[in-house]
Design goal:
The protein has a single domain, classed as S-adenosylmethionine decarboxylase (4-Layer Sandwich), CATH 3.60.90. It has three helices and nine strands. The two termini are 30 Å apart.
Length: 151
């Protein structure tokens, strides 16, 4: 995804979050956005043509930066480096849920998974991951988990 498309996507996602708040009635951390009540936002991110996918310290720093910028609470982080190809599997366990990644450096591909409830804003992780791994193509899918109105 080029910078223009990313900026447009982030603006659109941010606009959705303008009417975004935690459910006050029962403090269950469900979210109300645009009149829809749901448990949390789940982003599935595919990066193609990415670099530095075998750099475990860069990955951990990107996770920490994402947690901070998404206004989430880090409970635990774990990264595993595979050999011989250098792929990484990692997870950040959050009070609000999780961020995970699996990389295939030999294919310049990474699969990120972010799920956050409450007032966290997972879309803020996208530019952090883009800056760290410089993908040629980025695909983001958003799911509203726990949406009882979904059919």
């Amino acid at each position: 995804m080029n910078a223009r498309n990313t900026t447009s996507t982030l603006r659109a996602m941010s606009a959705q979050y303008d009417s975004y708040s935690s459910s006050e009635e029962n403090k269950d951390h469900f979210i109300v956005r645009n009149g829809i009540t749901f448990a949390g936002t789940h982003l599935i991110i595919d990066m193609w043509g990415a670099s530095h996918l075998d750099d475990i310290s860069r990955m951990e720093q990107a996770f920490r930066d994402a947690v901070r910028d998404c206004c989430a609470t880090l409970l635990h982080i774990h990264m595993h480096h595979f050999t011989p190809n250098g792929g990484i599997s990692g997870v950040a366990v959050l009070a609000e849920s999780h961020i995970s990644v699996h990389t295939w450096p030999e294919r310049n591909y990474a699969a990120f998974d972010l799920f956050m409830c409450g007032d966290s804003e997972p879309q803020r992780a996208i530019p952090i991951f883009e800056k760290a791994f410089k993908p040629e193509r980025l695909i983001v899918n958003e799911y509203l988990r726990g949406n009882s109105d979904a059919r």
